[in-house]
Every structure is written in C-alpha cells, then in structure tokens.
Amino acid sequence: MTSTAIAVSGLRKAFKDKVVLDGIDLEVPAGSIFSLLGPNGAGKTTTVNVLTTLIGADGGTARVAGYDVQTDAKAVRAAIGVTGQFAAVDELLTGRENLQLMVDLSRSVDGDVVQKLLDRFDLTGSADKAVSTYSGGMSRKLDLAMTLVGNPQIIFLDEPTTGLDPRSRRTMWTIIRELVADGVTVFLTTQYLEEADQLADRIAVLDQGRLVAQGTPDELKRQLPGTHVRLRFTTPAELDAASRLFPDATRDDEALALKVPSDGGTKSLRGVLDRLDEYELSAEEFSVHTPDLDDVFLALTGHTTEVVAS
Ligand SMILES: Nc1ncnc2c1ncn2[C@@H]1O[C@H](COP(=O)(O)OP(=O)(O)O)[C@@H](O)[C@H]1O
Ligand SMILES: [Mg+2]
Question: What sequence ranges are listed for the domain ABC transporter (predicted)?
C-alpha cells in the first residue's frame, strides 16, 4: 500500500440542482486519523459515501488505498471498513450473531475472530443478548467491531459518537486510538471540535460544500478565539480594576465581564485567582470557556453553523 491512504481532488457531488460537494481536495497519510468537521447537513456523510463507493461523484477524483473509487470500486471495498452514521447492527439478533453474520459475509479465515472482537470491545457479558437491549454505546461498539471483521486498512467512521454519553464517547476515543496504533488509517466525521481535537492528526472543516480550513488541531486552533476564563463582576469599578490586572483580556462592559485568555489548565486558573486575591478583588462568577463548533465557524467563515434547510 502507498503512504497516502486517501487522496481526493476536485470532488463534486450534487443532488439534482443542490450542490453538496463543490470541489474538495484532501489527502490522508496512511496510519493517521483525519477528521472531517462540519455541522449537520454540511456534506460529511455524502463525502464518506463517495469515498466508500456507495454513491458516485459528479466530478473530480478520489483514490482510496491507491484505487480509484469510480473505476476500481471492488478493490476499494476490499481495503476499507465503514461504520455508518446510523448503526448497521440488526436489533433482533444478539451481539454474537451480528458479528458471526459479518464473518460469514466476509472471507475471514480466523475462526476465533468473533470471540476476540467481543473480548476486545468488552461485549462478552452481553454477547448472547439481543442487540435491542444494548445501550447506545454498546451498539456503537458492536458496530465498530463488525467493521473490523475483515481487518480493513482504512476505516471510515461517520459520527461515531454522536448521541453517546460522555463516558461511552471516551471509550470510543480509546478504541479509535488503539486502531491507529495498530497502523489503521481512520477517516472520521464529527460535529464536535473537541473530538477532532482529541483524535485527529489533521482536521478539515467542511462548510457549504467547500473545505474552509485544513490543518493540524493546533494550526486550526491558532485561528480561533482561544480558551479563556470569563470573570463577571458586580460593579463597573471592579471591572475597571480587574481589566488593569489582565491587560490581555477583553472586556464586556454591558455584562461587567472580562475574558482572560488561558489554556484552561489548573495552573493558569490558579494564577488568575491568585492575582484577583492579591488585589482583593472577587469575581461574582468564574467560568472556563473552550471554543466549540460555533466559534470555529464564526472565526473561519464569519457565520455560525446554521445550515440552510434543504
Ligand atoms: N440522496 C440525497 N438526495 C438529496 N439530497 C441529499 C441526499 N443525501 C444528502 N442530501 C443533502 O445533502 C446535504 C448534505 O447531507 P449529508 O452529507 O448527509 O450531511 P452531513 O452528513 O454533514 O450531515 C444535505 O442538505 C442533505 O439534505
Ligand atoms: Mg451525516
């Protein structure tokens, strides 16, 4: 396999007269995690569907594992695993039966693969229960386990954690990191900046059919209003005094609030509090704000994530 897992150039896709992908270029090195970040309706699933040969593109080229998705779809399919946005598991079957079904459909020769995957995903205890009794996190794990049956080199995960509780989300992140440690390439879509930041080597931001930014999480975050501490005071005099203490801060006179840049770590938070203490100032309210998808879009595009209804 080449060192480029996915290479996309000028990719276009429209549904009737609605342009969904308007010329997309991206490159994903083998063994890395690439995250396509965008709000609902941005075209993430459409991109995944083209790259996984489920639908054809209208223009441009896409190579996955070195094969052209248009002309060599079969070879692409043999190299990839796909976990869709909506779980592909059969609710009426048990976890074990779902996995066995995948094994039977694939040409897997490893007789133990079902049990190995159940163990790996901590699903053995519920393996013989119908999937309809599983939690959302368990279904997602099973879905991902099913994706791994054929030992794919490249895995597409379409919003793998949307709707999961924070604990299941973290479990999923751990599993994704382990996959990459094993040399697998992961193409991940998400609506969460934090998720892309946690997992991805590179992030591309999709907005209205175009990639409006691409880079490492750090490169991207440098373009954003950073993490900051928000201090709210009760009087304008206190706000004045505080803003003299923190010359880098931006003030909101109406809200009597001060936004102090900070990395959000305990050390820098303590620094802010100590400095207030030193001058016998106390904030009415103290909160840490990390940028979210709305901040990303506002910074990169001048608008928020509102997507015009189709
Ligand atoms: N088969 C289809 N026919 C018509 N419109 C579609 C189809 N699939 C997706 N779309 C439209 O394309 C846009 C992008 O959809 P999608 O790729 O699912 O976005 P995302 O996964 O980022 O939420 C949406 O406006 C959606 O309504
Ligand atoms: Mg989608």
Answer: 6-233
262's enclosing H/E stretch is: none
- Report pLDDT for 102: 85
Q: State whether CATH 3.40.50.300 applies to domain 4-222.
A: yes
Sign of the alpha-carbon dihedral angle for 274, 279, 280, 282: negative
Contact 232, 254 (CB under 8 A): no
Q: Name the nearest CA neighbour of 13 among 43, 48, 57, 52.
A: 57
Calculate Rg over the CA atoms of the chain. 23
Query: Is the CB of 66 within 6 Å of ligand 1?
Result: no
The pLDDT score that the predictor gives to residue 101 is: 87
For the stretch 150-178, pLDDT in tens is 889 999 999 999 888 888 899 999 999 99
Ligand 1 pocket mutation pick from 20, 191, 293 by most atoms within 8 angstroms of CB: 20
- Which ligand is nearest the CA of 85, by number? 2
pLDDT in tens, 41-90: 999 999 999 999 999 999 999 999 999 999 999 999 989 988 876 667 88
Residues of the chain with CATH 3.30.70: 228-289
CATH class of residue range 228-289 = alpha beta
> Residue 8 in contact with residue 70, Cβ under 8 Å?
no
From the alpha carbon of 158, which atom of ligand 1 is closest? 21
pTM for this one?
A: 0.81
pLDDT in tens, 1-21: 449 999 999 999 999 999 999
Indicate if the pLDDT at residue 309 is higher than 60: no
Q: Please give the average per-residue pLDDT across 254-281, as a whole number.
A: 91
Could you tell me which of 105, 189, 86, 102 has the C-alpha nearest to residue 147?
102
- Measured CA to CA, the distance from residue 18 to residue 89 in angstroms comes to 31
